[in-house]
Amino acid sequence: MPDPIAIIAIVVLLLPQAYFLLASPSFLMVSLAIPSVTTLLRVLFSAHFKLLQLSGAASALAFAVTGRFAVALVPASVGVLGAAAKGRFLNAFDAAAAIRDTGDTAGVVRLRQLHWAGMGFNLVLLMAMLVILTRVVPVP
After folding, report:
1. What pLDDT, on the 0 to 100 scale, is given for residue 43?
2. Helix, strand, coil shares, percent, the chain, to 5
3. Angle in degrees, 0-180, between the axes of helices 35-65 and 105-136, rounded to the nearest 10
């Protein structure tokens, strides 16, 4: 019988990433030269990084409470990665938006590159977590 706490902890960890995986590609269809679109994308990234931190902490706590301290390192790492990436990514995003606001098209190009990089980061993290968690959490 699978451990329900482990399953809930994994779902809590994977839901924010699955949502971001589905929501972020929609911004590929609009121009990032529009300030309101860029603001909405920034809010999406900011929320995503906050959710990574919160879900990582909650999942790590759930695994630690059940005595799986080694497994708790996986979601804890996700939370730390989310915290580390948030500051760097959002600062780069704001700098690119400021360049765009001066009329330089290089800012729009940089915003798109950051968008792709953020989606790639999420995909790699999601795939890595799926591989790692299926190896450390026994599922019958």
Report:
1. 95
2. 85, 0, 15
3. 20
Q: How far is CA 9 from CA 29, 39, 108, 124, in A?
A: 34, 31, 38, 20
Residue in the block written with tokens 């799986």: 68
13 vs 78: CA distance, rounded Å: 9
pLDDT value of position 138: 62
Question: Which has the closest alpha carbon to 82: 107, 130, 28, 45?
Answer: 45
Instruction: Give pairs for 25-28: CB < 8 Å, separation 24+.
Output: 25/119, 27/115, 28/115
How far, in whole angstroms, is CA 132 from its chain's centroid? 17
d(CA 137, CA 64): 13
Which pLDDT tens digit goes with each residue over 28-40?
999 999 999 999 9
Residue 124 burial class via C-beta count within 10 angstroms: exposed 0-12, middle 13-18, buried 19 and up: exposed
Residues 73, 74, 76, 78, CA torsion sign: positive
Residues of the chain with pLDDT under 50: none
